[in-house]
Design brief:
Length: 247
């Protein structure tokens, strides 16, 4: 996501976002100057400046010729954050709770949606999380896992090298990028695949049989990793002839 995309996410149109960036870099401008520098038509520039002013991104400076100046970026961001917090508070307080099945099986599609669910599941955990990810996906949730670690929660991660995160229980195995296995509080499971190019899809559920199945699968995987490590240790402590080194 670039700067213009981020500004659009705050509620500006793309033309308003372009003019906000222009005003921040050039200082005070007339509508004519803004149109000329931005490459917009004068009518579009004036409409975008009016919209930007209404949305708190610019102020008018009256004089012989009306000029526009950008609201300071820090102030703009603080205002947007405050208004968004107010909106979210209303949504949380007033949104009715939908009747749901006791143990639904939900399909989550889209890379960003799956990432959001993964971040939220980890951060909302109260007791423990078990996660199986490739190193590149593990790096994306490293901050989330660190928060749980610092809270004293149990964090178990199976991942590929060279990922490292002190203070958690870490096991190394060959992991294919894009594959997700996550269990939170022995209550929720998220499993599936995310892809940079193809369709991303994950199953999300609190069905106890499914949670138990995946938890046992992760435990079995950990046991296999431990056995493999023990065999490697034995092999390292032997001569090439196969005889153990005596100490």
């Amino acid at each position: 996501m670039d700067l213009l995309d981020s500004l659009v996410e705050t509620g500006l149109t793309r033309q308003e976002a372009r003019l906000f960036v222009l005003l921040c870099s050039e200082g005070e401008l007339t509508g004519y100057e803004a149109a000329k520098l931005s490459g917009m038509s004068r009518s579009n520039a004036y409409l975008a400046l009016a919209g930007l002013t209404d949305k708190g991104g610019a102020v008018c400076i009256d004089g012989e010729v009306r000029r526009y100046a950008a609201v300071p970026v820090t102030e703009f961001c603080q205002n947007k954050r405050r208004r968004l917090d107010e909106v979210l508070a209303v949504i949380r307080e007033q949104m009715p709770t939908a009747r749901q099945l006791a143990e639904p099986f939900l399909t989550i599609k889209g890379r960003d949606n799956i990432r959001d669910k993964m971040h939220n599941l980890i951060r909302q955990a109260r007791y423990r999380v078990y996660v199986s990810l490739a190193a590149e996906e593990a790096a994306e949730v490293a901050d989330d896992l660190s928060i749980l670690r610092d809270k004293g929660l149990k964090v178990v991660l199976i991942t590929s090298r060279p990922f490292a995160l002190p203070g958690i229980t870490l096991y190394y195995a060959d992991k294919q990028p894009g594959q997700i296995r996550l269990i939170a509080d022995s209550e929720w499971v998220l499993t599936g695949e995310i892809s940079e190019s193809g369709e991303s899809s994950c199953l999300f559920s609190r069905h106890q049989a499914l949670v138990t199945l995946f938890k046992e699968a992760l435990i079995n995987e950990i046991q296999i990793i431990k056995m493999s490590e023990q065999q490697d240790d034995i092999a390292k402590n032997q001569h090439p002839s196969g005889k153990e080194i005596t100490r």
